[in-house]
Amino acid sequence: MALPNGLSTSHSTTRTPLFTFAVVADVQYADIPDGRSFLGVPRYYRHSIQVLQRAVTNWNHHKNIKFSINFGDIVDGFCPKPDSIIAIQKVLNEFDKFDGPVYHMIGNHCLYNLPRTKLIPLLKIPSENLHAYYEFSPCPEYRFIVLDAYDFSALGWPEDHKVALEATQFLREKNPNSDKNSPNGLIGVERRFVLFNGAVGKEQLSWLEGTLQDCDQRNQNAVVCSHLPLDPGAAAPEALLWNYDEVMKIIHKFKCVKACFSGHDHKGGYCVDAHGIHHRCLEAALECPPGTDAYGYVDVYCDRLSLVGFNRMASTQMIF
Fold this sequence. Notes:
Its EC number is 3.6.1.13, 3.6.1.16, 3.6.1.53. The protein is an alpha/beta fold. The protein is about 25% helix and about 20% strand. Strand 9, helix 7 (about 245-250) and strand 10 (about 255-260) form a beta-alpha-beta unit. The protein is globular. It starts with a strand and ends with a strand.
């Protein structure tokens, strides 16, 4: 259940966690005046990096945070393109001040600024053939699976690349609007078929299934991380992964996955699906008014994940 920020139940303090990891989403920094989303929500482009700075200071002060995860969109699409690398490096410099490894993933705003060929090495994402999905195990009991939510997308690939061509055609078939970023006329979860979203490709789906099978065999708990949300109960339809249903069909075949974390839908959200998997979409750093924050850390136990959120990021107990 979601709890008021900073609060926890007695259940969450009965044992020392196996480990703790930090989370932040959608920094979307740009050295430009504040603006608004297409829905009119204020966006604080210069302040967002201050949110990150306070997050890193807090995480380091904690002393026991093993690693941090950035859920994508490190800079904003309105960042002037000649300044993209400078802006990304400025944000990365702040992440570098964290006393531990940082795991990144690609978001749509990242791809508005730079192609995969430049983003992947900058973000130090383990990659084969410019795909950005990977996994890591911080302890024997847990495996983290980081999805590439724009593996199949019209963004980030050269215009004549096979993936870009196929994704563009797919979007034409799914979205009749001339502006493919518009969900106008699309109903319910069909509203996810917009240009600023993407999908997990076939090879990645196969990799995901094999990785989860291995987790089950090793009796590991798995945490799935994606820039795009995987359940309509935790996010707006417009924010969902194009093939979230395919991904969840694979995930539901196994017992190991306990939670799916995401960003992208800036207001955040939380639900538990019919299979008992927790879905937590994290609130965006970008939409924090000056002096407010949205970041947190997660205490990890064998039977639960306890998200301690700060300010605009809601604390959440995920018991399984």
